Structures
1.
Amino acid sequence: MESLASALREATATLRLAGVPSPGVDAELLAAHLMRENVGRVRALALIGATAPEGYADLVAERARRVPLQHITGVAYFRGLELAVGPGVFIPRPETETVAQLAIDAARALDAPRVADLGTGSGAIAGSIAQEVPAAEVFAVELSELARAWAARNLSPLGVTLVAGDYTDALSELNGTFDVVVSNPPYIPTEAVPREPEVAEHDPEMALYGGSADGLRLPLAAARAAARLLREGGYFVMEHAEVQAPALARILTEDRFWSSVRTHPDLSGRDRATSAIRTDVPWNGR
Ligand SMILES: C[S@@+](CC[C@H](N)C(=O)[O-])C[C@H]1O[C@@H](n2cnc3c(N)ncnc32)[C@H](O)[C@@H]1O
């Protein structure tokens, strides 16, 4: 039987050779998943000479083929949530936690806020808001049937209303009644295929591409949907690529539906979110 310590070393070398960005951490996380232990315990067990778990080499080989770690373990961690994920749904990213925080802050300032998450994917943002702002009434909109299956699993215990459909016209019966609208829409320019195989081959296309050369068609559709859904004074926040920040700020500033347009940096200082306040112009179904 191979020792855990030597299996971890070999796995790290294999994953490094395959170009996995954090080979040591992934080697430990795969072992932790199989052993149903946390990473700290795995390290301790390696030190005291434990043996490698059965099936470890298979999981390492899968990861070396650049299958996302979260598809192998079936879990993605986002703020306080442990989300079920797998093929057909976008893996939530750490930078989106900052966007969720902005929506949570806006919702927390109100007594019984009504909140919508447009393009909810696994339900990461909507679920975090429901968990962290218990007074909020949260709706989550998703077009993809596969993504919705994962969202349903993650969101039903949290009391979020999951809506099937296109956010362009979803929830129109509630137009003008939302206090907060948040979105991490698809925003990658059509020709910019991501380099990492985990993203290019495993994140769904519908979650990635913004539908135009600059990637802004779907983000701007999300902004229009937010203008339709929000009450006067309501708060909108959206994630985007750093390079899109100036264009989005300009377009929203010039749009009569928005005021107080602000760009927000993520934890590494990149401008990855834009927020705005709904003005009192009546919605005219433009
Ligand atoms: C970048 S992913 C974000 C998922 C999740 N909010 C997150 O942050 O992890 C964008 C999501 O929007 C969904 N989507 C794309 N176009 C949509 C549309 N027109 N209406 C509703 N959902 C849409 C995709 O299927 C995908 O789940």
2.
Amino acid sequence: MSNINGSCLCEAVRFEAQDKFQQFHLCHCDQCKKMSGSAHVSNLFISPEFFKWLAGENLVARYDVPKRSITNAFCKQCGSAVPYLSSTKQWVIVPAGGLNNCPSLKPQDHIFTNEKAEWYKDIDEIAQYPHFPD
Ligand SMILES: [Zn+2]
Ligand SMILES: [Zn+2]
């Protein structure tokens, strides 16, 4: 089984995981919108035993959202979302956009859709371009 690698934008933070992700959620909650600056986060969940830091763990900053078991973990140099250990320590939460290769597990669901951004609701109907439009 091949390993899955990932990094932040500046590549100072690097990590590796076995392809044993157990959950994959697209979360539309208000906190995830704030931390991503976008419509939702795309988070994989993996057991800590299958996850390994390769570099830059000391550059990871985390902000634990009060009263909700959500954390914004990011690279201190470039601000990219990076993995973090859940407050229960049961999972390492891995932002899917930080991966360099594709895990076997595909997104399972959209969650907290009652908090979905109004502007994102009919998103599949808009034009798509492989590059910036003219
Ligand atoms: Zn970085
Ligand atoms: Zn969320």
3.
Amino acid sequence: MRAFVLKSYAHPSQISLTTDYPEPRPGPQDVLVDVYSGGLNFFDILQCQGKYQNQPPMPFVLGTEFAGRISANSPIPKGCKLKPGDRVFGAGQGAFAEKLTAPWTSVLPIPDNISYDEAAGLFVTWPTSYEALVGRAQLKPGEWVLVTASAGGVGIAAVQLAKALGAKVIAAAGSQEKLDVSKRYGGADFGIDYTKPGWQQEVLKITGGKGVDVIYDPVGLIKDSLKCIAWKGRALVVGFAAGTIEKLPLNLVLLKNISIVGIHWGAYTKNDRDRVPEVWQELIALLSSGRVKPVVYSEVFPLEKLPDGLVAIEKRQTWGKAIVRIRQDDSVKARL
Ligand SMILES: NC(=O)c1ccc[n+]([C@@H]2O[C@H](COP(=O)([O-])OP(=O)(O)OC[C@H]3O[C@@H](n4cnc5c(N)ncnc54)[C@H](OP(=O)(O)O)[C@@H]3O)[C@@H](O)[C@H]2O)c1
């Protein structure tokens, strides 16, 4: 099969497609999946270079997020309700290949109104943003939310979800193009270029001097954003895309009467297992209703162009989810 196999660590621009790699063999709790689309993540770039917290032994196939069909010859482990031919999305090592194995507990059916390209970027970003806003920040209708990196993978999901939950959203991003994306595909009410000094004053002006009730920050801009947080506001620590782990003077937390709240979605399967199906049930209902819709970057990369996609993420050029397409979606007509 065709796959991006790593035999030594390399920068993503240096990797190439292997055309004759053996199909993976499922373990006792795994299903085998024909991969149609793979979702690109910043951590793929790190894993490629041996810099990620989770490094499989060599050789390994790159990629984690995927969408596809349960293979005709897949085993179906006890308790798994999926069957061969089902359209699914999920996470498992080796997504940038024609086939992968994944634990059946990390594989979910794709709602009928969602394509493979859209589903390939769902598994990590959407539950992160949903649980951050609902479970952690306890967002209420009518509240103000500021989303930083609002056109990025988790950011655009947060913008859409906050709107669907009845909030007023201020999108903050690094270019006019990304602010336009945040409004067009996310439904953001306002857009702010956070590369401009004093951008927090704009946020205060928009909110009539009150500030935002919730800050959703995957960049590492909590300290800067606290200049425009409201009394009793909640600041969500989602990630550090800018590359630096922030330090915060705690007097700000006291003086502004605010909460700093963390979200680590990946740890829920270990620490809060019961919450995972609840989040997915609520999210799938929202996705199926069409009230929220995954956003795919305008250039969908064919599998062999994966390096271009990863380099585009590294250069901060992409918005929404960057996707590689591995097979054509033969089910589109059937679903129309
Ligand atoms: N807590 C969790 O459970 C969880 C789950 C998923 C992801 N995350 C984290 O969330 C962060 C964002 O993930 P994502 O999938 O949304 O990534 P993404 O799609 O690549 O978006 C990241 C955005 O961050 C902004 N950014 C600001 N400074 C940057 C820099 N120096 N280098 C690169 N980007 C920079 C860029 O937007 P602008 O150009 O608009 O500035 C970029 O588009 C990552 O750190 C990731 O690890 C956390």
4.
Amino acid sequence: MHQFKLAEEQSSSELQVDCAGVSIGRVPIIREVTFNAHAGEFTAIIGPSGSGKTTLLKAMTGELAYSGSIRLAGLETGKLSAEYLARLRGVLPQASQISFPLNVSEVVGLGVIDRRRGRDGRTRRIADALAKVGLHGFEGRSYQELSGGEQQRVQLARVLCQVWEPVAADGQPRWLFLDEPVSSLDIKHQFQIMRLAAGYAAAGGGVVAVMHDLNLTAAFADRILVMKNGKRLTFGVRDDVMRADLLSDAYDFPLALTRFGDSNVPLVVPAPGSAQ
Ligand SMILES: Nc1ncnc2c1ncn2[C@@H]1O[C@H](COP(=O)(O)OP(=O)(O)O)[C@@H](O)[C@H]1O
Ligand SMILES: [Mg+2]
């Protein structure tokens, strides 16, 4: 009985991906991917362009049909209603195009799904979310007229509004699924957003992020899934995955690892001679 409860509690704070596959039309895009992510940790998904990172993320968030099993909080995501999913996880897509004129406050407000907050609560939540992403006071600006990096941060503020508490009142962790959340940001804002995401995990939430930048991944990820050709190449804790041979194979390019000063964080660089 006690053991059963323990197992149940554990699965409720995990994302369990078991032999997951995704086909678009008849073409298999993702095959046999297995890994677990834990609430309280930052899990990164890396791999070359076209390796299936976005497709896998969409399967995990309930946007694409999949074979195998993908469970969030012990529940098969493909069977959950959109409303239930919206309370459990927020999703930052790789590209968010909005083709009608909205101001920033309206875009961020799309994430405020708790109607009990009332108008003042809603306004405050939007302001707090914008401050968190470094866009304090941007409420009245036109979304269309912002830079790509600013739009990306507005979208993140929207997602944060949706799953504000890393651990909700019911004791269940909430999840952030982020597809290249910092790829169009300058270095200061890249670190700001990575710290924000890592802080969400440190507070007990789950974070799963597709990452382009290997050094930001090394600096912030607890565990890393490496994708190649639609399959899992490897999965493990940061230091087991951040290896020159493994990354060179993943990206089909000679890479070397170094460290900066006395830092524990590995730094990935092109292998000597790559520029010749
Ligand atoms: N809607 C789609 N129709 C056909 N092929 C797709 C579709 N979406 C993605 N793909 C293909 O699936 C592969 C993986 O794409 P994606 O998941 O976007 O990769 P990544 O995010 O790793 O760059 C690519 O070869 C891509 O062309
Ligand atoms: Mg992608």
